[in-house]
Design goal:
It is built from 6 helices and 3 strands, in the order H-E-E-E-H-H-H-H-H. With 145 residues, it is α+β, with helices and mostly antiparallel strands. It has a single domain (4-122), classed as Sufe protein. Chain: A. The protein starts with a helix and ends with a helix. Bound molecules: FE2/S2 (inorganic) cluster.
Length: 145
């Protein structure tokens, strides 16, 4: 039911962890299943994403899509990272079962939330980026878990 690429990223997820003093951090929850994803971005002065890490309380499809999404934004500019949609991530993984497509949204939303955090801290505007809707504050996450 899962493609080889999904299984590979699920079994050997890339970029798991956290970044201390990250330039941007975003946490989002998926209302459908209650899973949570956090993304850390290290962005340099030229607005290039030098490093990215993720942590999740999420299902296997969320792990695989986040692993792939982090690989796809690493080394990219902010604008290029905005083009890494959940659709692009699913395609890079050779597809997900339809019931699991919502899981891939978690990675996209968390990256956007982390970019929003970066933009807010640096007082810049990122074209096409909207305020994340399902951003969950760190305190709320800790209270829940
Ligand atoms: Fe929750 Fe996949 S079931 S992210």
């Amino acid at each position: 039911m899962y493609t080889e690429k999904v299984m590979d990223h699920f079994e050997h997820p890339r970029n798991v962890g956290e970044i201390e003093n990250a330039s941007g951090m975003g946490t989002v929850g998926n209302a459908k299943c209650g899973d949570i994803m956090r993304i850390y971005l290290d962005i340099d002065e030229n607005q290039i994403i030098q490093d990215v890490k993720f942590k999740t309380f999420g299902c296997g499809a969320a792990v695989a899509t986040s692993s792939m999404a982090t690989e796809m934004v690493k080394g990219k500019s902010i604008q290029e990272a905005m083009e890494v949609t959940n659709k692009a991530v699913c395609e890079a993984l050779d597809g997900l079962p339809p019931v699991k497509v919502h899981c891939s949204l978690l990675a996209e939303e968390a990256i956007h939330a982390a970019l929003w955090d970066y933009a807010t801290k640096h007082n810049i505007k990122i074209e096409g980026l909207e305020k994340p809707k399902s951003d969950i504050g760190e305190e709320e996450v800790e209270e829940e878990y």
